[in-house]
Every structure is written in C-alpha cells, then in structure tokens.
Amino acid sequence: MHHHRALCERAVSPLEIAAGLEAHGLTDRTAARYRHRDVFALAEELYARTPGGSAEPPPPVAPAPHPDAGARAGWTLLALLPGAACLATAGALRLTEGALGGGARAAVVLAGALLACLALRLCLGRGPLRAPEGAGRAGLYACWLLSFAVYGEELIAQVISGGPDGPWQAAPAPLLGLAAAIAPAAWCAHLFTVRARRKLDGSRALEEFGAGVRPLLLVVVALFLCALLPLLYLAGLGLGGTGTPVAAAALGVLFFLARLLAAHGLPGPGTVALAAACAVEAAAPALVLAARLPGLDPLARPVHALVAAGGTGAVPALACGAAALGLLVHASAALSRASAHTRT
Question: With left for phi above 0 and alpha for psi between -120 and 50, is residue 134 left, alpha or beta?
C-alpha cells in the first residue's frame, strides 16, 4: 500500500488498481505471496483499505457505456471519406483520359491526394482508430510504405534489369483498396475494444482475461483481412491491377495492427514494425545496386532468388508480411494485459 499509495488514492474502482498493479509487473503469482488468489483480489483489498475507499466489498464494475448511434455514425462517415476521395480522383482521371494534358492530370492527382490526406487525418482523430498518445514517427514510415506500394515493384524490376533507366510506372490500385479498407478497420477496432472491455469487466483473474482476448484479436484480424482482400481485388479490377494483392494485404494488416496498438496507448511497437518493413524494402534495391561494384555480386543473390520465386511483389510482401506477423505476436501479448484497456 505504501509503494502504490498514489495509484490506490486516485482509483475509482478496484479494476483501475488491478490494471495499475499489472502495469507495474505484478502477476497472480506475486499476489499469492500476499495471500491473495490473484491480482484482482489484491486490488479489492487495497481499494477497501485506502482512506476514503469503501470498507464494504465493492460492487461489480458496470460495463462501459457504449457509444450512441450518432457517435458511431459520425466516425463511420469520417472513415469512409479517404476511400471516397481516392475513388473520386480515380474516376476523374478515367473520365478525362485523353482530354487533359499531363500538367492538368498531375493537378487532379495532387488535389485528390490532399483531400485523401485531410480525410485520413480527420478519421484518425475520432472514433476507435484515434491514438490518444499519438503515433510518433509512424506517419513518415507509412508514407514510405504507401509510396513503395505504388512504385516499388517497378523500381525493383528496373534495378534488376540494369536500370533504373526511365519513369517508374505507378500502380495506384493498392492505394484505393487500402483507403477503402479504413472503414472496416474502424469497425474491427471498435469490435475489439468493446468485446475486450466486456471480458475485462467479467474476468476475475489475469490469465482468464488474457485467454479470452488473444483469440478475440485473431478473430478481429481475420475479419479485417476478409474485408480487405475483396476491396483490393475490386480496386485492381477497376484500375487495371495485376496479380494477387498479397503485398498490399500484408501492408493493410500491418497498418491495422500498428494503429490498434496505438489506439490502446502502445504506439512504440507499431512504429518499430513499420520502420523494419521500410528498411527491408529500401535494402532490396540498394543491395542490387551495391552488387554492381567489383567483388560484391553475392549481395544481390537473396533479392534475385526472392524475385525469381515470387516476382517483384515478393519483396514488399516479405517485408510487410514478416513485420505484420511479428507485430501480431507482440499484440497478442500486449493487448491481453488489463492495463492496455483501462485507458480506452
């Protein structure tokens, strides 16, 4: 009580004390040394013994109130805006093909990009995707990853063939699919937050809560992936994309997990995962170019083998897929802690 007095005095329920104790590293095994079956039981006694706290056993914590329909409609509408901006830009370019010059088409693309960025900023500032502590440098890494999704495969193809020796052909389909997937991402994050809080309110031990949240996270990620793949496929049909959007799907899952962690007050791991994916994507063309120097031929062999096995899209697929898998493993542990949900 002396060590955690500040935590106990500002807590309004035993649940807050339990989450704070867990954040400080206390486990059910530690609580057993204090003759309590788990951290929740220890938190109840600390709450009862704190001056100003209730001497009676605390009542069950009521479930957090759900946002009303108006609030849900508000952030859902905002989540639809980035996809709508990208779709409108693609439609304008398709309708004016052959009628506008290169400068005018570039202006349309720039205006559409600005609108999409503004819409993205608005939708990430409200609702279940809002990061209360910010996302650090994740935005810079996201810009690189999105740029590589548009130009990266063409860059790798030209570098491997002896270039680069000409303009890079853009592949905008992943941008449209990812922008349209923001709305299902918001609903999946909302579903995870609501279900996790219900499990937290009904749990009596940390292991019980963690065992319920980990499969919930996997289900939510699978739901998002099921929504993302059709959107990427439709975007490819509309904009002339080719091949299976494996790299774009891996990038979408990486973005979703990074933002989900940031929304629960854990932006650091997502930023590290995004930075790692950027490093792998940047290393691929750099290794091929470095291999042109005398005696450095072996540097390009991994990239050549990867491209020979899966095409130029295998590079971003590996980079984003490995980062997303590692982030999923971390999220399954981090989001199964009660302290990650008391702040949302």
Answer: left
